[in-house]
Write a structure and sequence with these properties.
Elements lengths: L3 H9 L8 H9 L1 H9 L9 H20 L5 H32 L1
Helix pairs in contact: 2-5, 3-5, 4-5
Function: Mediates the uptake of pyruvate into mitochondria.
Keywords: Membrane, Mitochondrion, Mitochondrion inner membrane, Transmembrane, Transmembrane helix, Transport
Protein name: Mitochondrial pyruvate carrier
Length: about 110
């Protein structure tokens, strides 16, 4: 069984460890889903439907990238899967708000 120091050393020197962009890219990218969680508390009328759609496409493309890149970047995949889920939720809120607006104006 490896000691804690050996485990930390192997993580530090791994192809997806903190010495690589495979680690820091997803770490910094978590700011997007965190901001989206904060935005879920705002009124649905403030959601930009086009931008939310773009973010959905962006996350879907990068989920594929994270799966296909070698070494496979599970950290990035999880980050973008989280963002995709949150953006789809925001898009559903936007669609509901605009559907309600259209029904109310008739």
């Amino acid at each position: 069984m490896k000691t804690l120091m050996e485990l930390l050393n192997s993580f530090w020197n791994s192809p997806v460890g903190p010495k690589t962009a495979h680690f820091w890219g997803p770490a910094v990218n978590w700011g997007i889903p965190i901001a989206t969680v904060v935005d879920t508390r705002k009124p649905a009328e403030t959601i930009n439907g086009r931008m939310t759609t773009v973010m959905c496409v962006y996350s879907a493309l990068y989920m594929r990238f994270a799966w296909m890149v070698q070494p496979r970047n599970i950290h990035l995949l999880i980050c973008h899967a989280s963002n995709e889920t949150l953006q789809l939720y925001q898009l559903s809120r936007w669609a509901s708000a605009h559907g309600a607006e259209e029904r109310g104006s008739k």
